[in-house]
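Weekly sync notes, structure subgroup
Attendees: PM, AL, DS (notes)

Item 1: joint prediction request from the bench team. They want all four components modeled as one assembly rather than separately. Inputs as received:
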Amino acid sequence: MSGYGSLKEQAWKANVELPQTGLVVHTFGNVSAIDRELGAVAIKPSGIPYAHLRVEDIVVVDLQGKLLEGSLRPSSDVKTHVHLYRTFPDIGGIVHTHSRYATAWAQAMKPIPILGTTHADLCPGEIPCTKVMSDAAVRRDYEEETGEQIVTTFRSRSYEETPMVLVACHGPFAWGRTAEQALYHAVMLEEIARLALLTLQVNPRVPRLKKTLIQKHFQRKHGPDAYYGQRHEGSKGATRR
Amino acid sequence: MSGYGSLKEQAWKANVELPQTGLVVHTFGNVSAIDRELGAVAIKPSGIPYAHLRVEDIVVVDLQGKLLEGSLRPSSDVKTHVHLYRTFPDIGGIVHTHSRYATAWAQAMKPIPILGTTHADLCPGEIPCTKVMSDAAVRRDYEEETGEQIVTTFRSRSYEETPMVLVACHGPFAWGRTAEQALYHAVMLEEIARLALLTLQVNPRVPRLKKTLIQKHFQRKHGPDAYYGQRHEGSKGATRR
Amino acid sequence: MSGYGSLKEQAWKANVELPQTGLVVHTFGNVSAIDRELGAVAIKPSGIPYAHLRVEDIVVVDLQGKLLEGSLRPSSDVKTHVHLYRTFPDIGGIVHTHSRYATAWAQAMKPIPILGTTHADLCPGEIPCTKVMSDAAVRRDYEEETGEQIVTTFRSRSYEETPMVLVACHGPFAWGRTAEQALYHAVMLEEIARLALLTLQVNPRVPRLKKTLIQKHFQRKHGPDAYYGQRHEGSKGATRR
Amino acid sequence: MSGYGSLKEQAWKANVELPQTGLVVHTFGNVSAIDRELGAVAIKPSGIPYAHLRVEDIVVVDLQGKLLEGSLRPSSDVKTHVHLYRTFPDIGGIVHTHSRYATAWAQAMKPIPILGTTHADLCPGEIPCTKVMSDAAVRRDYEEETGEQIVTTFRSRSYEETPMVLVACHGPFAWGRTAEQALYHAVMLEEIARLALLTLQVNPRVPRLKKTLIQKHFQRKHGPDAYYGQRHEGSKGATRR
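Output from the run, pasted for the record:
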């Protein structure tokens, strides 16, 4: 028994749940989890169908992406994952999917505007979209640079308040304090992306949600005086099971 | 055994049915039921997944929202529910969801126009949308004021003929003589919201349904001479099981 | 045992299959079947959920809609059904639904244009939409007049070649040589309605399918030289099970 | 036991999987597989529901479409299939469906533009749409000419890099080295067709994906240095099960 058993179990569980959320087609999506004390990241192997995935297939790498355990190749997006873990110290899990509505917004190169309280329950502003990657960056180290694109987008934003992003022309990444919470954020992002498109189809000139409503809804779930859910956790009460 | 057993059972049953309707994602939705003789309202606890909900988790409050029975916190929307029960004397159940199409219309801040007989079978005019809440009201007592917004919208309308509303920027509320009927109204509201958007996508300049057709369809289900369904109940024959 | 057993069984089976097609919400849809020799029409009772429907609940009426057998009220649309059976001598079953995309076109008061070979496989031209009923007709005898609206629409058309119609502001009716075939036509109508809307969303200025392609596809399934399917039935080979 | 047992099994398996992909309604879709050594093509019989299909129902024809084995009529599209097998030497399976979004683009007579990396993972450019068939060709030999239309479209393109096409006014065909891979391509084509429409609904003026990103994504899955998936197969690593 390796010392990564519990971490691999956590990553395996979240990857296996992924297709049940309806967010992925075939093998297009992956979840990772980190153990900060061990400096180890557990991630889905590349191109393996979820239905066949076993705990022992999960690949473990260090924060530079170097293999620590596993006989399979990690997800081709592994460098993006470790780049985010290195830069965002408080995240414990990352999910990448090509979920339909979030991917449509990413391909459209548009941030998702905040149009209602369902969105404000999750985060207090638009879901940002990265810039399109430069040709030089694509050629340099594509997956590493995808991480860098995301990090740049969060220079002027809190990655904790907005635990998700659209990578232009590509698709969404979401994160959280755990892999399970990251998965919850990926599900809600897809829902919000869908609601936003429908809303604009009903009324293309609808204004953004006003600040008092954003603050009210975000605070009642995430602020120090949050009163949604059963326990005072400071934030993210909605993700408990 | 408390005296609220049957009421809690009713509220529990409707909450558990909620995810089967496809109207909710995660814990974003709640149902309540009232026993007018006991002056007691049974409602879903906040942030508990439907799959884990037990009858004993249901929270009972009085018409001011004061706890009567239960060890969990009630839904954060409880004040909206009791406000509606206090003001609409003939309702027995309330459902709140973030169902996709109804929420899209609510976020678009548009009433749902009456475009066909499916809508007229349910209610005899547009589904109204509240005004956006003032900043002062948001800060005062948000959930109470949400109830007040709804009540104001029904000043010039019958809450019995139109048992549902869109809260601007937020989502739908539906009610009925029982929690089960409220759930039926929430399902039909979502269907009508979806049909209306599709209809406008086919023909953006379609006129409203004409009055004679509205009256004919509404009366054949709800009027004193209703002939839809098997029994003369005066109204709402369609909801029997 | 009544003499209507086999007819009721046929109608019951098709009504029970209806919700499995995804075409109906709650009790909003009905199927009937006729036995021309007996002059008897078997139809769903009004407002009874499909899941609870038993063969003995099926109501039998004559071609004027007069009760022949059954203890429940027939569907409120029964007069429309018998009107069509009286006027279209070669049909054996009728289906009425409020299926989403067909209803959207009906509410939009637009015929469904023929845009592709999937449509031409089914019928050789647009799916017609009736005119909106006059106020006088609504007040006279609504369900009877709905039948009359449909019949008028087919004055200049073959009800055998185009076994379906949109009733303006209301929804679709489909028919066939049997109740089962009518159900097949209702399913394909919904599919065609959906494809047509999507096609126009991709390209709003797309032309109608050209005549040679319409004829080719319709003839290979329905003409005297049809070569789709396994047997030469003259038409509708696709509906065999 | 005939010598076609294994080939028929392969074609049967892919046809039976077809309805599980959600790509087909009723019997509107077919898969074939070829054994190049035997010069034999196994294909679905015409108009038989997938649920009732048995291995022995699969029809075997030669590369001119002449019957080699089977008691049922082959799919009416058989001449299109054999035309493609004759012209594209490296394909082993073909899938034809009327899947919704791909058919909408085909009916709209528009190629699917390349708008994101999900598309570039599959093929390095737009999904082409054939020209509309001339009246003379329709009358000459419709299914043969459908094959010819497709072949003409690939005069200036690699059928290996872009293993799929939209037949104008009709629907999609996809192919692959095996029937199973063809099925995978049909599923991904539908997903890409859907993503492209949603993307244009979010942003009608979105530019095409830039070349460096197309090349990067296509090469990481299909080039000589592909690093997606577990094995170096040269291409199509994503389709392994």
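Discussion: The interface with chain A takes residues 115-118, 121, 184, 187-188, 191, 194-196, 198-203, 206, 209-210, 212-213, 216, 220, 227-230, 237-238, 240-241 of chain D (CB under 8 Å).
Action: AL to compare against the crosslinking data before next sync.
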